[in-house]
Amino acid sequence: DAGVTQSPTHLIKTRGQQVTLRCSPKSGHDTVSWYQQALGQGPQFIFQYYEEEERQRGNFPDRFSGHQFPNYSSELNVNALLLGDSALYLCASSSFGQGEAFFGQGTRLTVV
Amino acid sequence: AQSVTQPDIHITVSEGASLELRCNYSYGATPYLFWYVQSPGQGLQLLLKYFSGDTLVQGIKGFEAEFKRSQSSFNLRKPSVHWSDAAEYFCAVGLSGYSTLTFGKGTMLLVSP
Questions:
Q1: Is the distance from CB of B104 to CB of B23 less than 8 angstroms?
Q2: Are A99 and A48 in contact (CB under 8 A)?
Q3: Average pLDDT for residues B15-25, to the nearest whole number?
Q4: Distance, CA of B99 to CA of A48 (rounded, Å)
């Protein structure tokens, strides 16, 4: 079992650009959640996808969007990047209706 | 809205000594409670969880935590710390039936020889 896998591991983008991060959930999981972890902070919930729909959303602007594919994998898209978007982006997978989430290693995004 | 407070930003413990990391939560019902550990540059690893039942839960790597409803606390403990336990520890609360989590700001554990 490969667990939750995220790609890429590191990324450097310029302000104003767009970025796409990818996540493959743990085998048997159907729900993917995305979190942003700024330096020195705890992870903050961005949104959750289940059955290819956004089910819940945290306090993030519309520049943050996502998608879930039929194989349960997911993408996080961020448009018009700001310096403040620099963070570790974590993907977590779970079975819908169960509280236990397994996290990937994250994607470190640096905006310059 | 739920919230999680970890009052200690940094804690230094001597190797072999006992450890207690504090976590207080604010939530209107009985939440799902979690402790995660994060090594530098890594993702989060689940140490233990509380959903219901016995208020003392055992986790991996010799960790345990106790849920105290009256104090809205879920403190993490380990009787004897190893150098490899040095990492950042996050307490989190989740809604029943969902896996969206609210995290505390974390406690960095340093282990001295």
A1: yes
A2: no
A3: 97
A4: 9
Tell me if B30 sits within 8 A of B69, measured CB to CB. Answer: yes
Burial class (CB in 10 A: 0-12, 13-18, 19+), B93: buried
Hunting for tokens 């994060």 — which residue is that? B38
Q: What is the DSSP string of B33-56?
A: EEEEEE-TT---EEEEEE-SS-SE
Query: Which stretches does DSSP call E strand in chain A?
Result: 5-7, 10-13, 19-24, 31-37, 44-50, 53-57, 64-68, 74-78, 87-94, 102-103, 107-111
A73's tokens = 């994998």
Residue from the list A43, A94, A98 with its beta carbon closest to the beta carbon of B103: A43
Rounded Cα gap, residues A32 and A69, in angstroms: 11
Gap between the Cα atoms of A66 and A34, Å rounded: 9
Do the chains contact at B100 and A108, CB–CB below 8 Å? no
pLDDT at B96: 61
Whether B98 has a pLDDT exceeding 70, the answer reads no
What is the distance between the alpha carbons of residues A82 and A95, in angstroms, rounded to a whole number? 33
Asked whether residue B1 carries a pLDDT value surpassing 80, the answer given is no
CB pair distance less than 8 Å for B94 and A42: no
A99/B46 CB distance under 8 A: no
Rg of chain B on CA atoms, in Å: 13
Calculate mean pLDDT across residues B43-58: 91
CA distance A85 to A65: 13
Residue numbers of chain A with a pLDDT score lower than 70? 1, 99
